[in-house]
Amino acid sequence: MAELQIKIQSVLKAKTKVTSLKSIKVGLLGIGTVGSGVFNVLQRNQGEILRRAGRRIEIAMVADLDTARAQAAVGKNVTVVADARAVIANPEIDIVVELIGGYGIARQLVLEAIEAGKHVVTANKALLAVHGTEIFAAANRKGVMVAFEAAVAGGIPIIKSLREGLTANRIEWIAGIINGTTNFILSEMRDKGSDFDVVLKEAQRLGYAEADPTFDIEGVDAAHKAALMSAIAFGVPVQFDKAYVEGITKLGAKDIKYAEQLGYRIKLLGITKQMANGIELRVHPCLVPAKRLIANVEGAMNAVMVHGDAVGTTMYYGKGAGSEPTASAVIADLVDIARLHAADSAQRVPHLAFQPQSMSTTPVLDMGQVVTSYYLRLNVADEAGVLAKVTGILAESGISIDAVLQREADEVGGEGSTQTDLIILTHDCVEAKMNAALAQMQALPTVLAPIIRIRKEELV
């Protein structure tokens, strides 16, 4: 009986110690979709979060231009202001969560929060992709943390996996579906056989695509995320400006269909690889073998494959956006900061996984230096000798052909058509060599339309 009482007293003491620690006070800059998700999840799971963090995490202040809407969202116990700088200036606030977005005022506010000695959590991939080097350097000088799990792939804990879970590995490559809008569009094109423009309008109607979807469909959003993952994987500065970026706007329904017939699916991938002569950093549509798990990620879902020398290939799958999935990542960052709040800054996980003084200057390769294989679709005159001329150019360029698929003219252009589609899969070659060969092929009078070139990734 005495032993039981001792155990009960021990548990009560431990509980008292946890709950007696000073609360971590958080200031939210912006309470839109993600901000309201953060508030709601934190309120709903406060007990679990307290047990994990060791102290209460409390949203004490919110800045939003629409103060009435913000106050209604968070209730009367939270201070709501219109001026974000009032949050930063409040000495009671330990962590500033930036959910404004964009490159402009968000950059200034984050730097001001760091200068004021506040830790920062952000979901702003664009900000970090463009200004990350400046922001992380400022945080290192002030000894504060900048956490950004929510900036890449929403609720998928890919940043923590790269920075911590895979830290024993030499990361060799990463390939990810990291934009849900484009994945939804490609899935719909495949399922319905519709062209890009038709599916984009439907995606906008359903709310999967913005009224101005340029960042998504042109690959810019995915490139922001790929640049961050590349920096963490290889210990280099964030170099979004050196990424090769190509979107999905030139893809047609027939490309989706032909890829399927050849055993592939088309996905917009963010890819980064460590090569002997530098780092590849690129975003573009890819043919991926249909048997790969990532090829079967449909709709607005995200997935990231990471290949490490020790662990092999791992894959991380889940919702890449949305109020509560993104809030899950934001709160995970808040818990990490709560745990390490008083720790020596030298003992924390570095922002980009590698110690700042050990960052590499390995260059990002120009796209012309990248080696990959290709899918080519040529709309050509249906006459003798066309195939020979095309394959002859490839042979003279030192490009080996893996497979050729030639459609019947009637199938492509209807009965009596005088043109057809020629589909060629190549083996690996350097991109500069393929560019030169494409220019020669495009100049042939029997090639009737711009050649469609899609890179192919086996992901093994």
Characterization of the model:
By secondary structure, the protein is an alpha/beta fold. It has three domains: 2-155 and 326-358, NAD(P)-binding Rossmann-like Domain (Rossmann fold); 158-319, 2-Layer Sandwich (Dihydrodipicolinate Reductase, domain 2), CATH 3.30.360; 370-456, ACT domain (Alpha-Beta Plaits, 2-Layer Sandwich), CATH 3.30.70.260. The chain is built from 17 helices and 17 strands. The protein is elongated and about 80 Å long. The model has no long low-confidence stretch (mean pLDDT 93).
Descriptors for this entry?
single chain, 460 residues, alpha/beta, Dihydrodipicolinate Reductase, domain 2, Alpha-Beta Plaits, eleven-stranded mixed sheet, 17 helices, elongated
- Detail the poorly predicted runs: none
- Share of β-strand residues: 15-25%
Q: Which sheet architecture does the biggest sheet show?
A: 11 strands, mixed
Q: Which geometry do the CA atoms define?
A: elongated
Termini Cα gap: 61 Å
Measured as a percent range, the helix fraction is 40-55%
The count of helical stretches stands at 17
CATH class of the largest domain: Alpha Beta
State the CATH superfamily name of the largest domain.
Answer: NAD(P)-binding Rossmann-like Domain
CATH architecture of the largest domain: 3-Layer(aba) Sandwich
Structural category is alpha/beta
Write down the Rg: 26 Å
Overall pLDDT confidence: 93
